[in-house]
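Hello, quick one for you while I still have it in my head. No rush at all, and the record is pasted right below.
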Amino acid sequence: MTDKRLLEMAAEAMDNSYAPYSLTKIGATVETATGEVFTGCVIENVAIGSTICAEAAAIAAAVSAGHRSFKRVAIISEGDVYRLPCGNCRQLISEFSPEVEVLCARASDGRFVSYPLTSLLPLPLVANND
């Protein structure tokens, strides 16, 4: 799967966003280790803590289908800025694939940046399973 196609799928998911408070639509895709792709969109709630981020929705869909290992996460949003995953989503992504690549795109021009998750979350929380 190309970066472009992964971002196109995220843009398609972005169209389904429910964003009456921020007025910013966001879509995401997650590519599994086996090459399957799952999508998600932002689902806002008046109780801000109940809002579901697009990347969290995509990961939830993938995990619900039995996937636990990811190659890439792609996020696209309206406007002229690159939306990086929030801290909660960085930790959620790290739970499953700490070495994942994160693509962040602007819908306004389709340009994107790419980061290894380890640069966005250098010291993730880890379980102490001693």
User: Anything to note?
Assistant: DSSP finds four helices and five strands in the chain.
